[in-house]
């Protein structure tokens, strides 16, 4: 598994295609949720992803403070179906949190979690900060990680 993190400008056309392809496969097709996947935030983001056999297998979009929220944020977190349950999601989140902690140590990290994944994110010190709400007809909660660099994860 090869891990990469790049700004939008650093992505090749093929890398961007692979990222958008898996995001649409999971968030639009698999979850049967037609919504505007390309939302204008990608250009401001760092794109963290793992590739195996020339396919993106894990991905997260990392946004600096003041982009989507006042806090830094993690979004579009995914693991390919054939890699779920292997620990790849945990590795992805560890890398995402570490990157944001190193680059934006003075700000919390925020994310929108699908409600079923709340316990997964709680293992990385994220705490619920909202009631459950529907986003594209899927129950979500907002979560924030207030601790800064050096914090131990619970998993």
UniProtKB/TrEMBL annotation:
CDD domains: NAT_SF (cd04301). It is an enzyme of class 2 (transferase). The keyword Transferase applies. InterPro entries: Acyl_CoA_acyltransferase, GNAT_dom. GO terms for molecular function: acyltransferase activity, transferring groups other than amino-acyl groups. Keywords: Acyltransferase, Transferase. Residues 6-148 form the N-acetyltransferase domain. Gene3D superfamilies: 3.40.630.30. PROSITE patterns: GNAT. It comes from the Bacteria. Its EC number is 2.3.1.-. This is GNAT family N-acetyltransferase. It comes from Alkalicoccus halolimnae.
């Amino acid at each position: 598994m090869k891990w990469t993190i790049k700004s939008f400008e650093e992505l090749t056309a093929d890398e961007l295609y692979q990222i958008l392809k898996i995001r649409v496969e999971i968030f639009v097709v698999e979850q049967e949720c037609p919504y505007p996947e390309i939302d204008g935030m990608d250009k401001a983001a760092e794109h963290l992803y793992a590739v195996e056999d020339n396919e993106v297998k894990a991905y997260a979009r990392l946004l600096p403070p003041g982009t989507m929220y006042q806090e830094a944020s993690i979004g579009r977190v995914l693991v390919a179906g054939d890699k779920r349950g292997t620990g790849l999601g945990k590795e992805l989140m560890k890398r995402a949190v570490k990157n944001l902690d190193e680059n934006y140590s003075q700000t919390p990290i925020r994310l929108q979690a699908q409600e079923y994944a709340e316990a997964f994110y709680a293992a990385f010190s994220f705490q619920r900060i909202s009631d459950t709400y529907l986003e594209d007809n899927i129950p979500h909660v907002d979560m924030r990680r207030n601790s800064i660099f050096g914090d131990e994860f619970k998993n």
